[in-house]
User: Which sequence fits this backbone?
């Protein structure tokens, strides 16, 4: 692996001596080999200089002079660095142990990533970490739509190239929302990737500007968003017209929850350190995506929400196009719900039924067969068709094609959001069960059909015509003959033996080289995802080499009723046997059973009330002429005593609940940190193992 990237960290400070030492030690204690650390102090008068002078030899630079505020101090600090990766940490906050090595590893293994942010965490003035927040995703769309609270600055790092493209500095015209303005400018150029790790920690303390002046921060924040809205690219606004407002707003929690499914369309995948380990271990330095890096104006996607679970509990036949179809009794599929793809229309002269659903996603096949697809859909208007809203070409310049410019929009035609799969959170990151949100780019169109079928709610999928055997016809030539790795092919004769019709990829047809290894891996991931969702899959192909799914003859598969979809919580877990049900007591027994525990817990109060009633009764007997006044004042005294007792008891209960909640939250945060430290040790062991493997490989070669 290449040498570690250099990292530039700046700590701005003004009269922050109380926590300055802890902050500096959290940075220097990272022991990162290529660290550039700069202190930018605004001529503090509280003894801060005595602290950072002790670390002068470990600093790249030390600035101690009057400045024009927080943003100016940070800009000065960064101007004295040239590190590949950048970030700042305020003098009252800290970096968690191992932060910088994790940041470096992420940027090394993910060259397509230009800025990251970790899970939020917070600590108090006693340096007790009491909050460890969940990982969540961010995007430019979310920010503009009003979902922008809050990217934790202490946990955010970026490449210097992004900093320079975004202006090369914080906006000193803003007093508070300098970080928010920087994030908004970053979003113009790159996606923000969330990391499932706590990287930095925010300290909550009295007198904090970001807390005491929150109203001013929000005012500046709204001005930044409004500036962005006013200058927004018309294509971007058109693509998300229903989500992007004309005036800056802030979504409530309820609004964000309601809109979350629509807002997720541009969320990049979450980076998990287990995936980073795998990339490092296998020497992967690719983006894991067929889409090129950088922002783009996305194409509008169709609303597939209404199709969710439309066929819940039903069976679907997923129809491939292999030569085994010539040995299959296709008449058995009449009356079945069939999902077909690509050039299935070549089969229509042999059958008297038509598929219910259709898709085509291949960047070679879709444009090449567009006229045939349009004609097929025109002749079969009830056939529901699905296409990617954006298609990226194989090989060459890897251009993006707009789905609606290839296939015209119309009734029963849906354009979905196709995204690249990752290995970050298998199987979900390589197989989507919610096509309304996204569909994973497949290694074979069968995976797309299976994802869409799962979204439609089918509980059983029967695969037909998936041979998984390919031979290269002699007539196939590469589009770019000077590029031996170009996957794009053109046939010059009707000699296609890989499909049911020799003209399928026949003379003049465009296609690309198949990769059966990746296909099989994607089928295996699909099997895992569908199994978790309770969907049964059978392979009814005649022959073939697809061995991932259980085999079943087509006649048997269609003769049986669809297997019921397994619910995540089985109904029998709620069943209670009759001999376990006790008959509740009645009458006095029931009352005493209900009140007994409470009376025991409050015996002192009950005893006092009984004694007061006894005293009142005795007074009435002994002093009958005063019985009215005795009764009135006695009842008043009992009521007052009862109210005081309830108030004291309630206070004790509420105090206990608050203490318990705080202890539980702090314990959870501490446990999260302990787990993170253990995972870092595992990372270090993996890194050492990787180095040993490389050294062994070099010796073997020598």
Assistant:
């Amino acid at each position: 692996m290449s040498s570690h990237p250099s990292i530039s960290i700046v700590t701005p400070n003004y009269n922050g001596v109380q926590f300055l030492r802890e902050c500096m030690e959290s940075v220097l204690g990272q022991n990162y080999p290529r660290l550039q650390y700069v202190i930018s102090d605004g001529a503090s008068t509280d003894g801060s200089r005595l602290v950072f002078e002790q670390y002068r030899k470990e600093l790249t630079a030390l600035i101690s002079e009057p400045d024009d505020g927080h943003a100016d101090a940070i800009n000065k600090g960064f101007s004295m660095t040239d590190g590949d990766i950048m970030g700042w940490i305020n003098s009252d906050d800290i970096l968690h142990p191992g932060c910088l090595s994790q940041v470096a590893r992420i940027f090394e293994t993910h060259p397509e990533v230009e800025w990251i942010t970790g899970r939020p965490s917070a600590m108090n003035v006693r340096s007790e970490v009491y909050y460890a927040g969940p990982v969540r995703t961010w995007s430019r769309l979310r920010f503009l739509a009003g979902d922008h609270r809050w990217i934790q600055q202490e946990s955010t790092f970026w490449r210097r190239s992004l900093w320079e493209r975004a202006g090369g500095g914080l906006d000193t015209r803003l007093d508070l929302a300098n970080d928010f303005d920087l994030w908004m400018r970053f979003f113009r150029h790159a996606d923000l990737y969330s990391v499932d790790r706590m990287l930095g920690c925010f300290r909550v303390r009295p007198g904090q500007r970001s807390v005491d002046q929150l109203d001013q921060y929000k005012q500046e924040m709204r001005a930044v968003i409004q500036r962005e809205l006013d200058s927004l690219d018309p294509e971007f606004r058109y693509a998300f017209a229903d989500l992007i407002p004309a005036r800056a707003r802030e979504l409530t929690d309820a609004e964000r929850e309601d809109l979350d499914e629509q807002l997720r369309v541009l969320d990049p995948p979450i980076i998990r350190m287990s995936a980073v380990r795998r990339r490092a271990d296998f020497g992967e330095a690719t983006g894991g995506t067929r889409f090129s890096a950088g922002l783009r104006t996305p194409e509008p996607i169709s609303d597939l929400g209404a199709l969710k679970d439309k066929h819940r509990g039903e069976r679907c036949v997923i129809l491939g196009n292999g030569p085994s179809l010539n040995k299959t009794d296709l008449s058995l599929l009449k009356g079945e719900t069939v999902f077909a793809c690509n050039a299935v229309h070549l089969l229509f002269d042999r059958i008297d039924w038509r598929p219910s659903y259709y898709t085509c996603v291949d960047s070679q096949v879709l444009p090449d067969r567009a006229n045939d697809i349009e004609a097929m859909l025109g002749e079969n208007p009830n056939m529901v068709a699905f296409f990617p809203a954006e298609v990226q070409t194989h090989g060459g310049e890897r251009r993006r094609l707009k789905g609606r410019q290839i296939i015209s929009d119309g009734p029963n035609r849906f354009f979905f959001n196709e995204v690249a799969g990752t290995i970050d959170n298998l199987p979900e990151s390589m197989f989507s069960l919610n096509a309304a949100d996204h569909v994973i780019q497949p290694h074979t169109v069968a995976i797309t059909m299976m994802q869409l079928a799962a979204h439609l709610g089918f509980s059983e999928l029967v695969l037909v015509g998936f041979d998984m055997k390919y031979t290269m016809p002699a007539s196939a030539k590469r589009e770019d003959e000077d590029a031996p790795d170009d996957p794009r092919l053109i046939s010059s004769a009707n000699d296609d033996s890989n499909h049911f019709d020799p003209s399928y990829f026949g003379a003049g047809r465009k296609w690309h080289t198949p990769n059966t290894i990746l296909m099989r891996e994607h089928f295996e991931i699909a099997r895992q995802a569908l199994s978790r969702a309770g969907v049964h899959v059978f392979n009814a192909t005649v022959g073939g080499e697809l061995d991932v799914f259980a085999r079943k003859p087509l006649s048997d598969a269609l003769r049986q009723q669809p297997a019921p979809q397994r619910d995540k919580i089985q109904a029998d877990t709620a069943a209670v046997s009759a001999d376990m049900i006790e008959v509740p007591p009645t009458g006095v027994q029931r009352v005493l059973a209900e009140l007994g525990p409470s009376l025991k817990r409050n015996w002192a109060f009950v005893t006092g009330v009984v004694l007061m009633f006894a005293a009142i009764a005795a007074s009435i007997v002994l002093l009958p002429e005063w019985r009215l006044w005795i009764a009135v004042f006695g009842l008043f005294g009992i009521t007052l005593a009862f109210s005081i007792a309830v108030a004291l008891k309630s206070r004790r209960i509420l105090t206990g609940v608050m203490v318990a909640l705080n202890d539980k939250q702090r314990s959870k945060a501490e446990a999260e940190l302990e787990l993170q430290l253990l995972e870092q040790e595992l990372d270090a062991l993996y890194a050492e193992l990787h180095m040993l493997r490389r050294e062994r490989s070099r010796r073997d070669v020598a």
Remarks:
- Residues 600-687 form one domain.
